[in-house]
Amino acid sequence: MIELVIADACIGCDKCVAACPTNVFDSTESGVPVIARQSDCQTCFMCEAYCPTDALYVSPSSSPLPDSEVRDVDDLVGSYRAKLGWGKGRTPGSVLAVGPELPHGAPPERVRTHT
Fold it and tell me: What are the 4Fe-4S ferredoxin-type domain coordinates in residue numbering (predicted)?
C-alpha cells in the first residue's frame, strides 16, 4: 500500500498520478501530490516504479503501516525501482523536471501526505 510521498524529493512531475490505475493521488497547486485515497491502493508499485526521484514508498503490505514503522523506511525508499533495474539514489535536480518549480531546501521530512 502507498505509504509516503517524500515532499522534499518530489519534482512535481505527476508521473505517479498518471501511473496509478486506481486514482489514489490528487494533484495539488504546490506540485507535490497527496495520497487522497490510500484504501484504493492495489499495491501494484506503478507509482513507485515511475517516480524519477524515488519520492514514493509503497509497502508490500496491503494495509497501512503503523506510524512507527513508516518512520523507519529510509533504506526501502526506491528499492522497488532498484529491483526492476531502474536505479536508485536520485536526488532533486538530478533529473530534468517536468512540472512547476517547487520550493526545495527544507530539511528532508518523510511524512505521510494523505488527508
Answer: 1-30, 31-61
- pTM, full prediction: 0.64
Res 16: pLDDT: 92
Q: What is the spatial distance between Cα 46 and Cα 43, in angstroms, rounded to a whole number?
A: 8
C-alpha cell at 22: 486506481
User: Of the candidates 8, 102, 88, 75, which has an alpha carbon nearest to the alpha carbon of residue 48?
Assistant: 88
Pairwise CA distance, residues 20 & 74, whole Å: 23
pLDDT for 111 equals: 46
Q: Which of 37, 40, 56 is nearest to 48 (CA)?
A: 56
Whole-angstrom Cα distance, residue 22 to residue 113? Answer: 17
106: which residues sit within 8 A by CB, 6+ positions away?
Answer: 8
DSSP 62: S
Low-confidence ranges of the chain (pLDDT < 50): 89, 92, 96-100, 105-111, 115
Say how far apart CA 83 and CA 81 lie, in whole Å.
5
